[in-house]
Write a structure and sequence with these properties.
single chain; alpha/beta; 428 residues; 16 helices
Length: 428
């Protein structure tokens, strides 16, 4: 028999039942609010970054310097702050020795310690001790300060190296021993937060909608509804209809969330100017982009489709709603594993295990989405992951259809493993 139109009737019943429920409405409103706030949050983070002043100390070991490194550092940071409409990112102070500054640096009172010395060729060397990491905006500020101090010193010494621009003997940023410095700036932090939130959305969706499908199947088997539906539709039609119906409800919710995200992107800069006084031409340090939203939509649909067929098959194995949780444990374990792995990948995206596992179909909706959000996945890797996921969905659909058909045809029974396998072999 043809799968349609009976599958459409089942899908319509499932769809209307879900979108009209109070839980669907409340969850949609809450998640849309989360995405709206998330899309505006980056300009608030940017405002905090611009208005937060850290302290840095300068220790001068090159005692033949004519210029004042502290004054030079304060001057160049002031010029920078004036050009971007903020305040200097560092308050610069002088310290007599490294030993005097290290306790404050270790405690966090100082953000950075710049040790200025002179190389044998006459150029200044800069040894920067910090827990802020070697990348990010503060590292740029530190290099700017070092360049300006070295330039001023070279000009005072009338060095020929000034004309060539090579005024620094060396510039090193060294992390504090035992510290775990971040490897990215505020923008990367915002991207990690975004990746975490999107992974949570997919995980919650798979868990909630998957259990909806499994519970619906078990509920129908425990009542006369399944008996009536089997007289008008085949098990394959019912399986397809349930997945389409609940999936359409999920897509409806996703569409509303997408709208909230797009609204947030549209008002991001005006809100930044109005509330946080962020310049209008300042790029967002983080946030939802159309590419991330599309990627989220693709992995949302495919991830749900894969797990939906498995949840439907699991629900067909029992005749009581109380038993759904038990048979759904394998799917819950798989989705939970994907969520945990993605949570770990957020803080260690360059780990050797992240890239290979992002191609595993049961984990790719979580891990590949994280890699996309933080920018560590190439377009080719994303396409390969999607292709593998689609192929797995086709296989899962065939297996789930066999299990579902056998389960619903054994209506009213509580078969063991042997009985179920025997019925599955008979129903070929």
């Amino acid at each position: 028999m043809s799968v349609f139109p009976n599958a459409w009737l089942v899908a319509r019943r499932e769809y209307l039942g879900r979108v009209r429920s109070r839980a669907f409405v409340i969850s949609t409103v809450v998640l849309a609010g989360v995405l709206l706030v998330l899309s505006i949050a980056p300009v608030a983070l940017q405002s905090v970054q611009k208005t937060t002043q850290a302290r840095m100390a300068v220790v001068v070991l090159a005692h033949d310097m004519v210029t004042d490194p502290v004054a030079d550092a304060s001057a160049i940071l002031g010029i920078y702050a004036e050009s971007v409409g903020g305040q200097p990112p560092f308050v610069v102070e002088s310290r007599p020795s490294v030993d005097d500054a290290m306790p404050d640096l270790q405690s966090g009172a100082l953000r950075a310690l710049m040790i200025v010395d002179r190389a044998t060729d006459g150029r200044l060397t800069f040894d920067v001790r910090t827990n802020a990491g070697k990348a990010g905006t503060q590292a740029v500020y530190l290099r700017l300060v070092a360049t300006w101090i070295a330039t001023r010193d070279a000009l005072q010494r009338a060095s020929d190296s000034v004309s060539g621009g090579d005024v620094i003997g060396s510039f090193e940023i060294n992390a504090l021993p035992g510290s775990a410095p971040p490897t990215s700036d505020v923008q990367a932090v915002g991207n990690l937060i975004l990746a975490t939130v999107l992974v949570i959305l997919i995980f919650i969706t798979i868990m909630a909608y998957g259990m909806w499908i499994a519970t619906s199947v078990a509920e129908e088997k425990s009542s006369r509804v399944m008996e009536l539906m089997l007289s008008a539709a085949t098990p394959r039609q019912m399986l397809t209809g349930k997945v389409i119906g609940v999936g359409a409800a999920g897509l409806t919710q996703y569409g509303l969330l997408l709208g909230a995200g797009l609204i947030g992107l549209t008002i991001q800069q005006p809100v930044g100017r109005l509330l946080f006084h962020v310049p209008g031409d300042s790029p967002p340090i983080s946030g939802l982009t159309p590419e991330i939203l599309v990627g989220f939509g693709v992995f949302f649909v495919l991830g749900f489709a894969l797990y939906a067929f498995l949840y439907a098959a699991a629900g067909s194995l029992v005749s009581r709603q109380e038993d759904v949780q038990q048979v759904a444990m394998p799917m819950i374990g798989l989705s939970m594993s994907g969520y945990i792995l993605a949570s770990l990948a957020v803080s260690s995206i360059d780990a050797a295990w992240v890239a290979p596992l992002s191609f595993v179909p049961f984990f790719s909706p979580f891990l590949m989405l994280v890699r996309m959000t933080v920018g560590s996945a190439t377009p080719a890797e994303v396409l390969v992951s999607i292709a593998i996921l689609v192929a797995t969905i086709v296989l899962a659909m065939r297996v789930a259809a066999r299990v579902y058909t056998t389960g619903v045809l054994m209506y009213g029974q509580r078969p063991g493993v042997r009985e179920f396998i025997a019925a599955a072999r008979t129903n070929r």
